[in-house]
Amino acid sequence: MYKNRVINNNVDTTELLTLSICLETEAFSFTVYPSLNKSSIAYYHIETVSPQTSITKLKQLFSELEFLNRSYKQITILTVDNRFTVVPLSFFNKEHVKQIFNYNQLVKENELVLYNILEKNDTAIIFGIDKNVFQFLTQQYPQAAISSQTTALIEYFSTVGVEENLSKRMCVCLHDKSMNICCFKYKRLLFANAFECKQIEDCIYYLLYVWKQVDFNQETNKLYLMGTISDMKEFVKELKRYILNIFIIR
To answer: What pTM does this model have?
Structure first.
């Protein structure tokens, strides 16, 4: 099962474009956009996969989709998975990333452990990727930058609301079956984690639980929401019972 969307047919000069590959547990998505304007998407393709057939499906896509075999100015590969570990840089040692990751996460067969360094946030993100998928993609794109979605979210969220709010704030990215929560005091990261959520009630429970754990104020601190959810209006309405300042990131 797949769907694709051509938004701009003029993608002949891909050397000026960025290819972004998003690896999820049950889907691969590919987005092509101008390197200086992420909002102007030229091409989008999403393909449903299963963990057991991911590498087979990936190879098939590269043989069928011509745009994947072009040259791009920049290529980014993003892993979307709740299995990651956040480590302060002062405790980080690249020689021990696998031990640290496996201590916090269940060990998976044929998994390669990688890490991203966020200097501005004084944090390292340790995450896993299927070894076969990694080897195939890096053979196709040796220059590609590989990161965890959590890395991208922390980098982005650390700038959200900074200008108008110098105190604590929570930023949440909602997905169909999970959500990422990041908490900051100005640009300093206080908390980052992901939670599986089967329904809105689960999202509300985990969000309020973290809000209490980091000792946020219901009246003065701010909550920023982004992402996909079946009924955002109802979600916000329910949260308004507990948190005064809620903003939607478009």
So the answer is: 0.88
